[in-house]
Amino acid sequence: MKNIAVIGSGTMGNGIAHTFAQHGYTVTLIDIAEEALKKAINTIDKNLTRQVEKGTITEAIKKQTLENIATSSDLKSGVSNVDLVVEAATENIDLKLKIFQDLDAATLPDTILATNTSSISITEIASVTKRADKVIGMHFMNPVPVMKLVEVIRGYNTSNEVTSTIMELSRSLEKIPVEVNDYPGFIANRILMPMINEAIYSLYEGVAGVEEIDSVMKLGMAHPMGPLQLADFIGLDVCLSILNVLHDGFGNPKYAPCPLLVNMVQAGHKGIKSGNGFYAYT
Ligand code: CAA
C-alpha cells in the first residue's frame, strides 16, 4: 500500500488525506469542485501549522505532508493507479452507489475500495461492484488527525485478507482499528446517535436547557463535548440522516428522530456548518 485516492474534500475527506499523507502515503485528493479542493488544501495547511505550533510535528514533516498530496477533479484518472480508494463523499446513498460503480470500472482489479460512510450499508455499496470481497468500511472520526479510532466494517462478502490489510493499514496511521460487522449504524453511531437523540428529547420536553444538558454529560461523564454541542459539530442533518437509517433498518420506534431535530434541519439549522444549531456560531 503506497498510493491512496480520497474521494471528497469536505471535513472528513481532507482529514483522511492529511492523515495518510502525514504517514508517508502518496495521496490524490479528488473532488468535482476545484474550489473545494483549494479550500481543503488550505484547511490541511492550517491544521498542520497548528500541529507544528503544538510541537507534535516538525516543519519538515508539514512540508513533506503537503508534498505528498496531489489534487484532481477527474475521478477516472485520479484513481487509475492506486492501491486503495477511500470514499468520503456526501452521505447520500444514490451518490455513493454511482461512485462505487465508477470506481469499479476505473481502478485496477486488485484495488481495495473503502468507504467512510457513517451508516450506509457496506454490503449494499459492494453489491454494485464486481469485487464485493474488496469493499470495506473505513469509518474515521472527526477531527480525523486527532481521533484514534477507525471503525473497520466488514460487508457481508468482505474477505478476511482485505479486512486484515485494512486493520494493518490503520495501525500504520497510528490509529486503533476496531472490527465490526455491517448492521445499521455499525457500533459508533448505533450507540452515539440514540444518546444525542435522547439529549434532544430532553431539551424538547423541557427537562433542562442546552447548556445544562451538555454540562451534565461533560462534567458528570467526562465527555469532551456535551451531546448537543457534539450534534452541532457533526451536523444536525447528518445526525438526522443516521437516525433515519437506524429507524428504517431496525424498524424500531426507539430510533425515531426527535421532532425538534427534524424541525431544526428543515429550518436550515444544521449546526456549526450553517452557523446555527443548539448554539449560535459567528
Ligand atoms: N487537525 C489537527 N489537529 C487538531 C484538529 C485538526 N482538525 N483539531 C484539533 N486538533 C488538535 C489540537 O491541536 C490539540 O492538540 P494537542 O492535544 O496536541 O494540544 C488537540 O487536537 C485538542 O484541540 P483543542 O485544544 O483545540 O480543543 P479541545 O481540547 O477542545 O479538543 C476535540 C477538540 C479534539 C475536537 C475534542 O473536543 C473532542 O474530542 N471532541 C469530541 C469529538 C468526537 O466525539 N468526535 C467524533 C464525532 S462522531 C464522528 O466523527 C463519526 C460520525 O459518523 C458521526
From TrEMBL:
Q: Where is the 3-hydroxyacyl-CoA dehydrogenase NAD binding domain?
A: 3-182
Keyword set for this entry?
Answer: NAD, Oxidoreductase
Report a single Gene Ontology molecular function.
oxidoreductase activity, acting on the CH-OH group of donors, NAD or NADP as acceptor
Keyword Calcium found? no
State if NAD is listed as a keyword.
yes
- Site location (Important for catalytic activity): 139
NCBIfam families hit by this protein: PRK05808.1
Task: State the family it belongs to.
Answer: Belongs to the 3-hydroxyacyl-CoA dehydrogenase family.
Q: What is the name attached to this protein's record? A: 3-hydroxybutyryl-CoA dehydrogenase
**Record organism:** Ohtaekwangia koreensis
